[in-house]
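Lab meeting tomorrow. Look over both lines:
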Amino acid sequence: MFKFRPSVVEGKPGSLYVQFIKDRKSRSVVLKGYKFYPHEWDEESESFRVSIGNTERKAYLESIHAKLMTGRQQVYEAIRKLEIRNPDYSVDEVIENYLRRQYRNNLTAYAGRLADRIEESRPRTARSYRCVARRIQEFYGGDVPLDRINADFIKRFEAHLLSKGKKPNTTSYYCRNLRAILNRAIDEKIIENPQERLFSGVFTGNEKTEKRAVKREVIETLENLKLTGIVNKQLLLACHLFLLSYYLRGISFIDLAYLKKANIRDGCILYTRHKTGQRFEIEITPKIEVLLNNYQDDDSDYLLPVLRKGDKRTDYENALKQENNRLKQLSALIGLDKPLTTYVARHSWASNAYAMGVSIDLISQGLGHENVRTTMIYLKSFDYSNLHEANRKVIYGTQEAV
């Protein structure tokens, strides 16, 4: 039975749910995409009243009425198949069969279901699934059935992203997550006849990007920067966060943001890296202490004023976006050709340590890399001017560079 569920907020539209009853057992499933008012629903016929004066509202009701008719047919079809296969089927089997059909017709709903399952354990992946579903919805112009997604569809989706100015690594991000969603749908038999080589000819790798680092002179410029005023105060905070990331052996922004006062022990900062779970201990030098002293807040457990609202993932994401925007403004202010980002601090620590003769093994250990090959990727942006000078000395056989 299809029934109306009123909103808990007075005056707001309610929703639609389907109730399954068998062998005195009852279960309900709320249907997404239906928002309407009590007077627009006919309980007896289990259908919408579409003969109303408002033309726009009438068109909307007609559209969801058509969806309801399709949904009702799917319910009856699910029950019919179960009765043929096993007359002793349970109400849970009916719901499972019905939902499978619903997800088959709606990538957004299926991606949302997957995201809900892993929200607690893998929030970034959950966000990625929802994000790719939104992008495909924008490309397709609405919800797309899973069986409509074939190799040609995926190629056109990639071309659409490229036409919007997306870089190869960005298109790869969307295509990889779409592939993960489709693979899960295949495993759950929601996609019954999967095509082979769906992503043939589509880029799903990682294009190597330039790893930017800044020289010691830029760090000194930031250290000596004097900013006043409300707007400049925000830029100064962005500057201090960048410097702290540099001073703390290239600590990632997420680890910096989540540092708490309890992480300070015996003149050191002890923390566990979010990405790898590694434990780090970093001495609080005078430069670090001066910056930390600027942001003492007795009402907050956090060491720095980054996560003011709480520790929700969205709070961090907003803070990261804000920091990079401010660093971009700061870069223009000090005349940099390429803007600073939170990640530049990490690469700069590695490159400047290497320039000062610190061994690659120590740099690798300081960054928390499992092997030096990862560290060498960081150092590919290293300024080779010293090596060029040394090479000229070798070539010309003189102590002075030519």
